[in-house]
Amino acid sequence: MDIHLYLMCYRHEALVASHLSAEEFGAYMAVGTRKKTFGNVVFFELDPSFRSSELNLEQLEERCVPHSSGQPRRSKYMSVYRVMEHVPLEAYGQLHLTTRDGRVLSLDSQDYQAPASRSEAFMYAELCPLTPRIVTKLDPLEFTKKITDSANPVSVPRIFFAETQVARDSDGRLAGYLPYNNPAHIEDCLDEITNKPAKFAKTVDRDPPLTAFYRTIASGFYVGDSTGIKQYAYPSVDELEEKHHKWWRSATMG
After folding, report:
1. How far, in Å, CA of 115 to CA of 194, rounded?
2. Could you tell me the superkingdom of the organism this chain comes from (predicted)?
3. H runs (alpha helix) in 43-182
4. How would you classify the pairing of strands 14-18 and 76-79?
5. Order of strands across the sheet with 228-233?
6. Separation of CA 168 from chain center
7. Please, what is the average pLDDT of the chain?
8. β-bridge mates for residue 76, sequence order
9. What distance in Å separates the CA atoms of residue 44 and residue 107, rounded to the nearest whole number?
């Protein structure tokens, strides 16, 4: 049986080996185990040839073996601590977004596309290894370079995050369809960053509840470090409704 390597990275880190395909694995982690009873699952599929002694992958073939009955090994945890920093950028493959009822949407990486110039600040949901929600003047590439620069007093070796929506109604308030639980505070943070040239970022929430998370995604997801960045563009609502209707219907429910 082929062994797949999955990096789970939705507000925690774990490197998991499995004989299941990505779609089967996502469904299993969301609804097929008593260890997790609700919530989304986000994970990368890694290059199957990737090996790292820091992540115990020299033991991969001897630990991820079929059960004595011949059934595939659904999950074998290889590492649960400081995983992302030990996985080089070139090893990251497809990104898989799993809803709470086990439906999987798979995104391919693409060359980074800089966003159009804008006066409004960006809002990012940091997902791994950090978890705050922040607003910043920096676009995804600029933010990645800043947060992974070891010369800065606050930095990480590698970062995974999503750009989230900050659309406003005509009265200046956040759009009513956005499911944030503290819209007035977010508006204040956005205005502060926009109106203070010397300030490049502000924390909105140190550990935000990610209610209806998939409904809030803007341009997509990003993983990067000092060597570069990978972008996983998020489909438009029209495309989600037309091509991924069952997944999107599930995603809009929580």
Report:
1. 17
2. Bacteria
3. 60-63, 140-147
4. antiparallel
5. 201-205, 133-136, 122-128, 158-164, 217-225, 228-233
6. 24
7. 93
8. 17
9. 10
- Token pair listed for 204: 């909105």
* Whether the bond into 129 is cis, omega within 30 of 0: yes
- Class of residue 147 by CB neighbours under 10 A (exposed 0-12, middle 13-18, buried 19+): buried
- The closest of 10, 29, 9, 34 to 18, measured between CA atoms, is 29
Tell me the residue ranges of DSSP E strands in 100-210.
104-107, 122-128, 133-136, 158-164, 201-205
Range with the largest mean pLDDT of 50-54, 60-64, 90-94, 200-204: 90-94
Q: Alpha helices, DSSP H only, in the chain?
A: 22-31, 60-63, 140-147, 183-195, 237-243, 245-251
10 Å Cβ neighbour count for 236?
9
DSSP 88: -
| Cβ neighbour number for residue 78 with a 10 Å cutoff | 20
Q: How far apart are CA 245 and CA 29, in angstroms?
A: 21
Residue pLDDT, tens place only, 115-137 = 887 778 999 999 999 999 999 99
Domain residue ranges in the chain: 4-107, 122-251
Q: Which of 15, 6, 2 is nearest to 72 (CA)?
A: 2
Question: Is the per-residue pLDDT at 36 higher than 80?
Answer: no
